[in-house]
Write a structure and sequence with these properties.
The chain has about 270 residues and is mainly α. It has helices spanning about 20-60, 80-105, 125-130, 145-150, 190-195, 225-230, 235-255, and strands at about 10, 205, 210, 265-270. A hairpin with a 4-residue loop joins β2 (about 205) and β3.
């Protein structure tokens, strides 16, 4: 087809054209997704090496099965080193994932459900904010893939994907510094919707008597983040590892199934 006579082309951009926030965040999310995928591959490989080492050591130590006599027919598949490693691999990988969940990871994602289907506790925030100063808005927590796709709630590029906070006062960037109300309330993350401050000692000494707790020296992690670092039982860690794997796949799909351009856009003719 003949070239358009227009002095502009579709989809082009100057080499020094500014990049949009949406495009930048998509690139960063892609890098982080690759980081997460590589970590899972390396963990699977490490689990296989550990399982192989354990099985070879067990056999060299003379533990069952004993070495076969000369000219013995080939062993059944279930008794080969390869089969034994495959049998051990699942439990070994789970143990390593539990250890990773206990120690934390570089990239954090909210593992909860749909924020718009999350019920909020019956807490009279409008009444309490003059007393507590919106203390919950100083707590750190991870956003979900849905929050990232929506593009309203900001996250910390240096600590993906934690809520973005201000250095001046430690509050979430969406918090009104004058009235302490949330300025993006309709889009607030699931963690915010589900949070109940009434039994949180970082907010209240006595909720019923409305006795506020002293201000912390710095922003404290959100209760969900605090729970992650308090050595929960192994079965909780296993569930967290499983949920994290699901969240990682969901995030990867969200990036892979998205498009860099939303609609036709004109740019300069190439020269």
């Amino acid at each position: 087809m003949a070239n358009s006579g227009d002095d502009q082309a579709y989809g082009t951009a100057l080499p020094d054209a500014p990049i949009s926030r949406a495009d930048f965040e998509r690139a960063v999310r892609s890098l982080n997704a690759s980081d997460l995928e590589l970590r899972e591959v390396l963990m699977s490989l490490a689990a296989r090496v550990v399982a192989l080492t354990d099985e070879v050591t067990r056999r060299l130590d003379g533990v069952e099965p004993l070495p076969a006599a000369p000219n013995t027919p080939a062993p059944a598949p279930s008794s080969t080193v390869e089969a034994a490693v495959e049998a051990l691999l699942g439990d070994t990988l789970t143990s390593m994932q539990v250890g990773a969940a206990r120690s934390g990871t570089r990239v954090s994602l909210d593992l909860g459900g749909d924020k718009y289907e999350t019920a909020s506790p019956d807490v009279p925030c409008d009444e309490l904010i003059p007393l507590c100063g919106g203390r919950c808005c100083t707590l750190s927590f991870a956003l979900s893939t849905a929050d990232l796709d929506e593009g309203v709630i900001r996250w910390d590029y240096g600590q993906p994907y934690l809520i973005r906070q201000r250095a001046s006062d430690g509050y979430c960037v969406h918090n009104d510094p004058d009235g302490r109300a949330c300025t993006v309330h309709a889009f607030r993350p699931r963690v915010c919707r589900a949070y109940d401050c009434r039994n949180d000692p970082r907010v209240w000494i006595d909720y019923e008597q409305r006795i506020i707790a002293p201000l912390p020296s710095r922003a404290e992690p959100h209760p969900e983040a605090a729970e992650a670092s308090s050595s929960p039982p192994a079965f909780d860690l296993f569930e967290r590892a499983r949920a994290r794997a699901v969240a990682v796949r969901r995030e990867t799909l969200a990036i892979n199934e998205s498009f860099a351009e939303a609609a036709p856009r004109k740019g300069p003719k190439p020269t």
